Amino acid sequence: MSSAIARTRFSVLDRSRTREGRPGAEALRDTVRLATELEPLGYHRFWVSEHHGVPGVAGSAPTVLAAAVAAATSTLRVGTGGVMLPNHQPLVVAEQFGVLESLFPGRVDMGLGRSVGFTTGVRKALGRDKDMADDFEGQLAELLGWFRGTSPTGVRARPSEGLTVPPFVLAMGEGAEIAARAGLPMVIGDLRNREKMRRGIDHYRDHFRPSEWAREPYVVISGTIAVAATPEDARRLLVPEAWSMAYSRTHGTFPPLPPAERVEELSMTDRERGFYESGLTGQLAGTEEQVAHELETVLKETAADEVLVTTSTYDRAALLDSYRRLAAVVGRARAVS
C-alpha cells in the first residue's frame, strides 16, 4: 500500500515576508527566486498572497507578482493564495486572471479569499468595509460568470470569457460552506488546529455540490512545515514568524521578520511570551523522519488531496533547505509506493 504522502500533491505559498534591515523590493525578488529554486524539486503549485499596509509583507499586488513568477518558471502552476475578492470589482479580477491565463496557458490558478483590510485605515484607503466580506458568495458567482459569459450587463470580459482558470476558495470563516455550495476546491488551515480543520473538511465534503469547475470535492490543507537536520534547527525556523505574530497581537502591527538569535535574546512580557510560545507549538517541525511521520498522520486523518506549505523565516538559506528536505521526504515516499 502506498503512503498518504506519496498520493498527495505538495505546493508552496510564499507571502513575500520582509526581513529586518532589508527593503521590500528584496522580499519580492526573493519570492520569484524561490519559485525558480523550487521548480526542479517537484512542487505542484507556487502561490503568492495579498496584504495591504503591512510592514512585514511586501506582496500587495498578487496578480502582478504571479506574472513575474510565471515568467521566471516553466512548469510550476502559479496563482494566488489569495486575491481578497471583497477588495476588488469581480470584473477587474476576471480581467487580470484572463491576462495571466492568456500569457501562461494551463498554468494559472485563481485562489480567492474573503478578508478585507486589516485595519480601519487600510479599509478606508481601499474604499471597502467589513460588511463587504458578507457578499463574498455573490462576488464569487459574478467573477465566475465573467469567464462563462453569463453577466446580465451585456459587457464582455476580455480576454477572460471562454477561458478556464481553476478557482479555489480560501476557507476562512464560512469559506468551507461557500466552497461546497459553489462546487469549488477548498484551501483550509491551519495544521495547528486539526480538530477544527477536520470539521471544516467534513462539512465541505458532506455538502459539496458538483459544478462545471469541479465534479468532486478537492481539499488543500495549508500550514507551516519546517524540516531541518535536528529538531532544534527546525524549531529555530519557526522563531521569527512566531515572534512577529506575537508582536502583532500585542502591538497592533505585523513587523518584518527578525533573526532567530535576536528573538531568543528578547525580554518578553508575559502576554508576549504566551503568544510567542503558542506560535511555536503544534507546527509540523522536525527532522525528515519526524515530519514524514506527522504528515502521514495528518493526511490519513484528513484524506487531503494536496498540502500547501506556508513556511516563513528570516534565514533564507535555511528556508530553502527546509523545502529541499521536504521534497526529499515526498520523493522517498513515492519511490517506495
Topology readout:
Blueprint (H helix, E strand, L loop, with lengths): L8 E6 L9 H15 L6 E4 L13 H11 L4 E4 L2 E2 L5 H14 L6 E4 L6 H7 L9 H13 L18 E4 L4 H8 L3 E3 L5 H14 L11 E5 L1 E3 L3 H21 L8 H5 L5 H11 L3 E3 L1 H15 L3 E4 L6 H21 L1
Parallel strand pairs: 1-2, 1-11, 2-3, 4-5, 5-6, 6-7, 7-8, 8-11, 9-10
Helix pairs in contact: 1-2, 3-5, 6-7, 8-10, 11-12
Write a structural description.
This protein has 337 residues and is of the alpha/beta class. It has a single domain (9-336), classed as Luciferase-like domain (TIM Barrel, Alpha-Beta Barrel), CATH 3.20.20. The protein is built from twelve helices and eleven strands. The chain has helices at 24-38, 62-72, 90-103, 120-126, 136-148, 175-182, 194-207, 231-251, 260-264, 270-280, 288-302, 316-336; strands at 9-14, 45-48, 77-80, 83-84, 110-113, 167-170, 186-188, 219-223, 225-227, 284-286, 306-309. The strands form two sheets. Strands 3-2-1-11-8-7-6-5-4 form a nine-stranded parallel β-sheet, with helices on one face. Strands 9-10 form a two-stranded parallel ribbon. Helix 3 (90-103) links the parallel strand 4 (83-84) and strand 5. It starts with 8 loop residues before the first strand and ends with a helix. The mean pLDDT is 94.
